[in-house]
Amino acid sequence: MKITNDIKYIGVNDHVIDLFEGQYDVPNGMAYNSYIILDSKIAVMDTVDRKFTHEWLDNIASALGGKKPDYLIVQHMEPDHSANITQFMDAYPQATIVSSAKAFTMMKNFFGTEYEDRRIVVGEGDTLDLGKHTLTFVTAPMVHWPEVIVTYDSTDKVLFSADGFGKFGALDAEEDWACEARRYYFGIVGKYGAQVQALLKKAAGLDIEIICPLHGPVLTENLGYYLGLYNTWSSYGVETEGIMIAYTSVYGNTKKAALLLAEKLKAKGCPKVAVNDLAREDMAECVEDAFRYGKIVLATTTYNAEIFPFMREFINHLTERGFKNKTVAFIENGSWAPLAAKTMKGMLEGCKNITYTDTTVKIMSALNDESKAQLDALADELTRDYVAQNGETANKNDLTALFNIGYGLYVVTCHDGKKDNGLIVNTVSQVTNSPNRIAVCINKENYSHHVIKQTGVMNVNCLSVEAPFSVFECFGFRSGRTADKFDTITPLRSDNGLAFLPQYINSFMSLKVEQYVDLDTHGVFICSVTEARVISDKETMTYTYYQNNVKPKPQTEGKKGWVCKVCGYVYEGDELPEDFICPLCKHGAADFEPIE
Description:
Elements: E1 7-9, E2 12-14, E3 19-20, E4 24-25, E5 30-32, E6 35-37, E7 43-45, H1 53-64, E8 71-73, H2 79-82, H3 85-91, E9 96-99, H4 101-111, E10 119-121, E11 127-129, E12 134-139, E13 149-153, E14 158-160, H5 177-189, H6 193-203, E15 210-212, H7 223-234, E16 243-247, H8 253-267, E17 273-277, H9 283-292, E18 295-303, E19 306-307, H10 309-320, E20 324-333, H11 340-347, E21 352-356, E22 361-363, H12 369-382, H13 384-389, E23 410-415, E24 420-425, E25 428-433, E26 436-443, H14 447-455, E27 457-463, H15 469-476, E28 492-493, E29 499-500, E30 505-519, E31 522-534, H16 543-550, E32 561-564, E33 570-572, E34 592-594
Helix pairs in contact: 5-9, 6-7, 8-12
């Protein structure tokens, strides 16, 4: 397989394997990817699983066409990628291994040698010149082992991403990328979201056109889609709007409750209900769904004064992987002393930012009128936001939405006639209540100011404390004149035709401009309220909450240089160029300060 003119694929497909890492079902096999860069100096990127030694060495020989490789670059020491280091070095005794210091320590453990006389140790920012190609190494500790590095080829703009952006399945398997990549990510990498976020921040400063992972297909198109999913997964955000129900049932009564709740949720407008029988379905698939959706219902029986074993195993999988930022509801069943809800909540105690529903459904052996009424109440509670988002069922004159206005952070949306646009503002206030008038202050340099002056309409989305940093990156760090702010978001529509956010807001108001006040650098739009909806009862995101809990803390320890005051990007160097533009938030040198 030809990746570029100088980079070729030399990996293998494994259709014999049944369980990857001894636990993950892989009905479509597995790919162990390896690549070769043909230049004045020739570099081989990683080896493959030990079962494919000869096939891999044959692939290398075929790609070399009689030449000899100069380097073996080892990015990751898991045996499915490193098992053939010794065989390669025996076959090509003139070659040098390039890897991290921790990787060479692991080689000693695996192979009894650290290759002291045939190695180059690389770290963050180190480079390797192959001739036309220059490779830059980026450390990626705990993604998902401590020794991991990824490699960037600036010539062909290729990121060799180690286990990042990998998936289950051989390369000749025809299947949806996201489904198997999601199961792979949460099963194997899921615990290390913070480390993946750190790597994504580094990658944002690189011009990447191709991603070459160690598992799964080479990614060459629509890279924003894959990067966006990884950002959502690693920040423990909501990928798909909907509700997951995970249940175990001994005699069928808890199952009946789970299925009845699913029907009620669908009837009330829930866009997707995923029902999982934990005893019968692949556990990795169930874990995948738990992280995919923003709301989860756990339904199980009291068993030996605790909970049914499959539910215990499932919750253990969640807590091991840093389960957070979810709404959780419980259905418990017990014939004489129901304890399941208390046990499940106790198991989730260490999880961050979990919101529990007010309603817990208690079943005494079988459903009755009382427990069915509790199911109705739970369905109402879980679908309140979906009812409010639906134009046919929403209360569009809920002026309690105005109570969510404060010194908060908002996404103001508008439309320029061709596409939706939006920006972050922190100056929205109610100036009169009879009639209701809202003032919105926007910097004139923002494209949205220009659009709203022309159209006279906007939506103000009140962000809730659930909003992740990616929302601020999307709407605050780039201009709507040149960027599509909704390229990864499918918006909902209010009656004025404008977008409102499907996630992370507690209310929105549609506004019509009645008056404009020019304040030199800013403009104040005085508006009437044409529609107001309350989506949820989540707290409004204040500026203080954003600074303390959402905005990433700059990773400046041990570094010398400058840090962006807006997004925390670190520029390492003695002098910051006057024309420097932050690769993340696009702010200039004036918004950087020296690292103390």
